[in-house]
Amino acid sequence: MAAPESYPDGLLYHHEHDWARIEGDEATLGITWFAQDALGEIVHYEAPDVGAAISMGEAYGEVESVKAVSDLISPLSGVVLEVNAKATGEPETINEASYGDGWLIRIRLTDPGETARLMSPDAYRAHVATQ
C-alpha cells in the first residue's frame, strides 16, 4: 500500500518528480510521492552501477510498474556511491516509503551549484497542482 501524499521539508525537488536530500557533498535521490502514485505498483527497479556518472536532467535508471516502464531522471549530477539494495530486491518499497526505505541511490555531487535549480516543497506542490 502506498504512503499518503507528502512532500517533506528538507528535500529539494526536480520538475521530473525526483527528490534530493543534500548532506554535505553527497545526496540521496528518489522519486516523489506524485511519481510513484502516477506509476502505480512498481514491480522492478533497474539501478545504475556504483561508480557510474549521472547528469542532471538525464536518465540514470528505470522503474517498471504494472502500467509502464519509466526512465528515472536525475535531479543532480554526480557519481553513484550506493544503490539501495532493498529497492532493487523489493521494489514495492518505493511505493510504500518513497522518502524513507524506498530511496534509490546516493551520489557524490559533481556540481553542488545545481541545487539552486531545484524546487522547495511548496514550489513542487504548486508544480504538481498543474499536472
SSE pattern: EEEHEEEEEHHEH
- The tally of helices reads 4
What's the overall geometry? globular
Q: What is the CATH class designation?
A: Mainly Beta
| CATH architecture field | Beta Barrel
Mean pLDDT: 95
> Quick one: how many beta strands?
9
Helix percent reads: 10-25%
**Could you say which structural class the secondary elements and strand pairing correspond to?**
alpha+beta
Low-confidence stretches: none
Biggest sheet strand order reads 1-2-3-9-8-5
Largest sheet: 6 strands, antiparallel
Secondary structure elements and pairings:
Layout: E1 12-14, E2 18-23, E3 26-31, H1 33-39, E4 42-46, E5 53-54, E6 59-65, E7 69-73, E8 78-83, H2 85-89, H3 92-96, E9 105-109, H4 121-129
Antiparallel strand pairs: 1-2, 2-3, 3-9, 4-6, 5-8, 6-7, 8-9
